[in-house]
Amino acid sequence: MAEEKKVVRKKIEATVQMNRYMSDYFYELNEADKTRSRKIAWCTSVGPAEILRAMGFLVHFPENHGAMLGATRMSTEMIPIANASGYSPEICSYLTADVGAYMKGVTPLSRAYPGIDRVPRPDVLVYNTNQCRDVQDWFAWYAAEFKVPLLGIHTHRGVKDVGDAHVASIASQMKALIPQLEAISGNKFDMDKLRHVLALSKECSGLWKKVLDTASAKPSPITFFDGTIHMGPAVVLRGTHTAVDYYNLLLAELETRIQNKVAAVEGERFRLYWDGMPMWGRLRDHSDLFAGAGVNVLASTYCNSWIFSAFDPEDPFNSMARAYTELFIVRADDAKEAYIRRMIEFFKVDGIIYHDAKTCPNNSNCRYGMPQRLEALTGVPSLTINGDLNDLRLVSDEQTKTNVEAFIEQLEEK
Amino acid sequence: MKDSQPVFAGIDVGASRTKVVILDRNQQIIGRAVVRSGTDFEAASNQCLTLALDMAGRVAEQIAKAMTTGYGRKNVAISQESKTEISCHARGCYYYFPRPITIIDIGGQDNKIIKLDASGKRLSFKMNRKCAAGTGAFLEEMSARLDIPLENLDGLARQSLSMVELGSFCTVFSATEVLEKIRQGKKVPDIVKGLFFSVIKRVMEMDSLSEHVVMTGGVVAHNAYLVSMTEEMIGRSILVPEYPQLTGALGAALYAIENHPNQHFERIS
């Protein structure tokens, strides 16, 4: 039998520290849940977490939990439970996996963190539709379940250029949350606290960007698959000193790798860009598939989504409104194309992988001719693979493998 | 002596059929065979290789190099080297048609559209999604449902006077639709032609076509009328290689020659 090539992907030392920080975060939430000592807010991953933190809430992110369900491959067993209660297999599989797991009374947190047996119960749920409408329905389900308030920000979608009108609209919606959050938290809103949290978030965002930008080095010291794991603190701990400390540590390690020409993928032959969601249940397989062929998928739209360059502690509401609207996923295709062209150039990539995630149309950017247009403009070839973020019933491993190997063979022919 | 010359083997272990092509050092096909892949890829590839070698009048020891491709390319011990079926089909088709081409390959469980430039360099490729609609498996399922031997489909489709168009691409839904058409009294040849049309439509939506179109694969090899229907649909003639089911295996054999380290073709066994 033909032997598989040896896989070489260098481990990141800082992971140990990240795991400690993530553990502390989840145990703190669990403690607050059990003792009701602190108010807990649930928030969408690119929602107004800074406001919630500034008002004293501990923050749980259901999308992070959804990704954990995917990465542990629990999701595919949970999704049908939500399907059976009226939530279609065609909609967001974060939603269906998360709701299904709740209905079944299980959580991947229990496996990773002994003593935690459930997700922390919310006192309020706050969403931002900047990613999709599904988050609204997702949070609405829990609001009804826990009988707690549901608050939301409704972001404009398909935005070409973010203008003052967009910013004013979102900023006013953010401000409108304050009186309700004051009532729920029992804390008076303090602008200085918000400025402080936002300053920490901005610092976290800047460091996270530097971490991801290290992939522009040849060879790259990091892979997209590393990024999907190490983005954890940027999602759940931004606005804290912990996240800042972590990314300083990670950045130092990666910069040392660059100085020493240490490659994340040994013998880096080709450099690829990933667009769309990760397939959480196949992260290891995909990492091995590419690394085994000496190919580094080194940058992505997805990991870049937690870079909020517009944050400005001097103008918190307007700058948050702008930062959360400037995101790739909110934008029109021409803005997205310009963005990916910049990424192609900056990261010096040889090709692009588009993940067409069946249940995530908003983060599948290959459905309106973008790969063809970009290839015509840049000459950089692309491959679209069909799959899903969490529903492994929609993934064909053999087809993915053949497609990826054929794409690499195509790059070799160039 | 001719018979002592080294030969090169291309083994295409497909999901449905295993195909072998034996080439001499001048890239001429001297042996070929097709067998069912079944569940034991190793046994199928050995059997197929033996048949092809017999046809070539050669023995396994004369194989200077072998290359595998197809779904089971990494599941057979004959060779340590493999290439994807995308690359091998492209190589095999370019052997026959050295010009810019769009290849439509309709296999047992997947379809491919591959575009090559004038030099044979691959420009792009597409494979069907996780769905057997429009593949050989679709026709196999329908022949079972209609209780018609697979090999009779082509002849039946040619007899159609008024094609029955099917609305669904889905194999399961199509089967239900076919049963409904039978209940409505539609004629079997008209339904079978509708099945062929369904396959063509499914393939056509995968990608655009360039000027020169080549069709390959087992479905094409056994259903020449499907090619005629496609020609009618796109309004121009389609190129079909001598052995449309063997282009993957041929491509693998050509890669075996190309990748052989020794120009003198020393035996490796």
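Residues 2-87+247-258 of chain B form a domain with the Nucleotidyltransferase; domain 5 fold (CATH 3.30.420.40).
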